[in-house]
Amino acid sequence: MARKTPLPRWLLSVADWIYAQIVLTLLRAIRLLPTRFAVNAGGALARTLGPVFPVSRVGLDNIRRAFPEKSEAECRRILKGVWDNLGRTAVEYAFLDRIFDFDFENPDAGHFDVDGIDLFLEIANSGRPSIIVTGHTGNWELLPVCAATYGLQITVLFRPPNNAFLADKLDEVRGAVMGGLVPSRKGALVALNGVMEKGGHVGLLVDQHFSRGKPITFFGRTARANPSFAKLARNHEANVYAARSIRLPEGRFRLELMGPLELERDESGKIAIEPAMQTVANLIEGWVREYPEQWLWLHRRWRG
């Protein structure tokens, strides 16, 4: 069998540029629509088309294994909800600079319920470093936007798109409404250590597979998780908080901040890394069980 000849780098760059322009043009077009209409349309489109994509087989298999007591119809209903949530989240990305309308003086006026306002203010005024962990639930992009609204600047570890042209523009959008951004590549942990040494705050998504991670139990199955948050907490004696986004009917959200979490310590008195990871994994599992259609089941969380 003849070996495939790899495409020249310049041609790949051209293809990436074209793809980035298509996506950015689409985002600009979406911003011309009424927000509620665009978000509903994104959810309906994803809910209709998503289940036919091959990646849905991964999601459905994950749901079946996590909830063996559920019927096939229930598992497929959850999968449709996953796609609906993902479609809405993607469209809401176009409106990140104006979607968060919570008013501290009039908390019932907008589309957001915020639990833990006192904690946001406590962290912001503490003068010491802290870590906020979360998972891919609801619209997870809204959490740092909420924090920034309260003057809490969080440096977020994120996975940039492989498309460099698209990554630059999306970073610009994120940076305008969030705190600092650190791409999840080599040197990321060093950068986060630097932030915390200055008394800064770090936000980490901790619910995806990490091939070099440590084993934890998630839904009764072994998975590998990134130990970075536990290492940072141990090194800096930092408090660890947990935050989540919950999508509610009628375009509403509830954002919750809780903590500081009680984490097990070893004989030296320092935070024990693996028990800390399991504590957070248990917390996120509870969130997923409560709103299973709002978690990103399409990711291959369990491998091997």
Structure annotation, total helices? 11
Instruction: Tell me the distance between the termini.
Output: 30 Å
Give helix % range: 40-55%
Shape category: globular
How do the SSEs run, as a string of H and E?
A: HHHHHEHEHEHEHEEEHEEH
Based on CA atoms alone, the radius of gyration comes out at 20 Å
Give me the count of strands.
9
The computed structural class is alpha/beta
Our count of domains comes out at 2
* Main β sheet profile: 7 strands, mixed
Strand content: 15-25%
Strand order in the sheet with the most strands: 1-9-8-2-5-3-4
Unreliable segments (pLDDT under 50, ≥5 consecutive)? none
What is the mean pLDDT?
A: 87
Overview of this structure, please?
It is a single chain. The protein has helices at 9-30, 35-49, 55-66, 72-92, 96-99, 117-125, 142-149, 164-177, 188-197, 228-236, 273-290, and strands at 112-115, 130-134, 154-158, 181-183, 201-205, 214-218, 221-225, 239-248, 252-258. It has 304 residues and is an alpha/beta fold. It folds into two domains: 9-93, no CATH class; 102-291, no CATH class. The strands form two sheets. It has a seven-stranded mixed beta sheet with strand order 1-9-8-2-5-3-4, with helices on both faces. It starts with 8 loop residues before the first helix and ends in a 14-residue tail after the last helix.
